[in-house]
Amino acid sequence: MKCRVCREPAVIDLRRHNANFCAEHFLRHCCQQVERVIHDYKMFSPEDRLLVAVSGGKDSLAVWDILHELGYAVDGLYVGLGIERYSGESLSYVSDFVDRRGLNLTIVDLGDTYGFDVPGAAEATGRVPCSACGLSKRHVFDSAAVDGKYDAVVTGHNLDDEAAVLYGNVMRWQVDYLGRQRPLLEARDGFPRKAKPLVRLTERETAAYCVLRGIDYQVEECPMAIGNKHLGFKETLNLLEDRSPGSKAEFYFGYLKRAVDRFSDAEDRGRLGICSGCGAPTDAEVCAFCRLVSRSAGATQPVAFKARNEATVSKR
Q1: Tens of each residue's pLDDT in the chain, 316 residues
Q2: Could you tell me the end-to-end alpha-carbon distance of the chain, in angstroms, rounded to an integer?
Q3: CA-CA distances (angstroms) from residue 195 to 14, 51, 100, 263?
């Protein structure tokens, strides 16, 4: 098996590209794919300040590393979810990555800052754990980006993630979600710009990138994600991809090219108001996150916790 570029021994085969790469040219390929997405969707410029939502997994560490290598000013934000030993182990991988590269990391612990963790919130509210987790992380990421005056929040969503989410949204015809499933969401109504530079790379490719770059990452699946429908959608698409390489890319990018503009999104609605509890944008008097905090704490009324710019954080 020879590298398509230099004809030296290859370390990975990419069936959907009908190509093999040596370590050097595979790493270059990953960076080029990210650069292409940034350029095609005009995500951000070299002068912008970026905040990466980092979890300790391969995708968020890979996108942080790639953007750093490309010369972007990128800081990281880790949210402590309080999930048994999993959260502590995940933070250790992030800390090791940061220490080796001398990067900036902000840590927001849900328990210290808001008085609850994801397992407790799921039990108190009856929410699926992944729902409480997603809501909490989105709120913290948005708040940190706005308060820190970052130009964009960057997440590590890869092609497998986006294809699986699209598959689920099409299966249930979630029109609002379909209208917002884009690699870039512009800032609006108090929400920051959100970018997904990894959408041209698969999970296998980000994992290989981390191995070749010597990046240790959290391999275990979150224990709270057992039974998550998203994982089932991934398995279904993996079977299709195995039989027809390139199917996921054709599905996702074909949707972006031919269909996404047919669906409206939340931007078509009226402007949002301000949450009376935390000051975040919302279409109700009290935002969903404040309601989650209140119910998790056992309160009968929404808790007006610390203002967004007073949240407890630690920096490395």
Answers
A1: 999 999 999 999 999 999 999 999 999 999 999 999 999 999 999 999 999 999 999 999 999 999 999 999 999 999 999 998 999 999 999 999 999 999 999 999 999 999 999 999 888 888 788 888 999 999 999 999 999 999 999 999 999 999 999 999 999 998 888 989 999 999 988 899 999 999 999 999 999 999 999 999 999 988 887 767 888 899 999 999 999 999 999 999 999 999 999 987 544 556 788 999 898 999 899 999 999 998 887 643 344 444 333 344 455 5
A2: 43
A3: 25, 10, 25, 19
Q: Are 274 and 192 in contact (CB under 8 A)?
A: no
Domains of the chain: 30-269 (3.40.50.620)
**pTM as predicted:** 0.90
Nearest to 147, CA basis, from 113, 171, 101: 113
Provide the 3-class DSSP secondary structure of residue 208: helix
Enter the tokens of residue 243. Answer: 């039989």
CA separation for the pair 172, 75 (Å, rounded)? 36
What residues are paired with 75 via a beta bridge?
Answer: 51
- For residue 76, what are its two tokens? 């990281």
Q: Which amino acid is at 240?
A: L
Question: Coil, strand or helix: which one is 80?
Answer: strand
CA distance 289 to 31: 36
Please name the amino acid found at residue 219.
V
Q: For residue 37, give the amino acid letter.
A: V
Torsion of CA 306, 310, 311, 312, to 10 degrees: -120
CA atoms of 158 and 206, how far apart (whole Å) = 8
User: 3-state SS of 219-261?
Assistant: CCCCHHHCCCHHHHHHHHHHHHHHHCCCHHHHHHHHHHHHCHH
- Tell me the residue type at 107: I
